[in-house]
Write a structure and sequence with these properties.
This protein has 479 residues and is α/β, with parallel strands linked by helices. The protein has a domain of 292 residues. 59% of the residues lie in helices and 11% in strands. The protein contains 15 helices and eight strands. An eight-stranded mixed β-sheet has the order 3-2-1-4-7-6-8-5. α2 crosses α8. The two termini are 36 Å apart. The mean pLDDT is 89.
Length: 479
Amino acid sequence: MLSHSQEPVRSSAFIWEWTPFCLVTSYFIFSTCIYMVCSEKMIEVLWYVYMLTNTYVSMVTVVEAVLSISVTRESRRRVTKIAAMDFKPGVQPWPTADDQLPILDLIIVAYLPNEKDIIMDRVNYLCTKMLYPIDRIRINCVYNTPVDIQPLETELLELQEIYSQLRVIKVSGSRSKADNLNHFFTLNTGAEIIAIFDADHYPHPHNPRWAAERFMADADVGIVQGRCVVYNSRDSWLTRLIAIEFDKIYAVSHPGRAIMMDFGLFCGSNGYWRAELLKDHKMHGEMLTEDIDSALRAVQKNLKAIHETNAVSYELAPSEFQGFWKQRLRWAQGWAQASIVHMPMVWNKPEQGTRSFTKRFGVFSLLAVREVSYYLITQYTCLVLSFVILNFPKTPVALARMVFFPYPLSVWFFIISVACLFGTLIITWRVRSEFISVWMMVCFSLFYPFYLVVMGMIGLYGHARQVVAYNNWNPTARK
């Protein structure tokens, strides 16, 4: 039985946990009811607003995709050139000699209770599979755990006797990935480049080399972000959707945006930094998603970040909806929090250098438009729901006409949106990973509108959590 002192705490936690759900539920009910009593003219005006916004987002997405083609071609050209030279005896295929490569600290960050079943496998993989001079790379397993986990922790320490390039660092008192990283940044390792990976990643053996060559080729580059690929795409219908989404994000959207909006983004994992920049930058542990915050602070400082699609790393996606929901809720709230903090970047002066109009508009699109898009998607959903309630369609054709073609110009909005989606998916198909099939792309195309609605709901839920200052951290489940 709970004591009298525990009952208020339990009640408070219950209210804190369920208030966001009540807010989002009320939002959908209230919005749908409003549309049911709105005038026909007002409904038409709002419908056009939603369609125009959707058209803008669709067109920006397809332009990013088209711009990414040049990045893909250049990446393939470099792969082909190096592969051809690699077969010639006595020829150095890479631009930089092995003994001239930068010293690299590769960090694998782990929350041990959640990753105890995979950490030994990942450490062994990193120590044996990376094709980078062993005297110029150090593998650092930096972890925290609220309770001792034996014999695993002892076994990790013993691996240091097997692999000379391995360091295992337990961060006492750490409560987050940011704490782990900030502790490592205080160490004087002598490294020139620092790479950050989550514990579920399998970097391609050439991953560090591709990133290092980009730093060697351009002294102004401060960050190299690699491409993340979901390798468990066949585990469930959800992992299939996420795998294609990741191909679209990392191989199409990010490189295209870097060209279109004049800035790249560090994405939290499979990211490389010049060591001194990162040690000065640090991670802000008070932010729910410290990687998003660090990426935006890098943009604010005008640090040059580029996307290297050849630096591939394979990772796990949540195979069950519950794990996906928790992960994306944390991301949504983290983006909302970071957007509030960094939105002034659109109009204020940069800490160093200048900030072009293109970059300012890109930041506005990334932060403001993305956050507002959650409301536009869900408002359109409520609008359609009000149509269905007031005039329930009797046939599938009537439903399609109600959803897509209720007003003049509907056909054109539909054609433009479908054309943009089709164009983006074709370009994504050209750069798809080896884990994506034709059938997966077809299913993704069919389910994508519903997926967007779910993502809109998650975005709203993240905003509601931010309103009530919800700060429980749910680590993503690993297998």
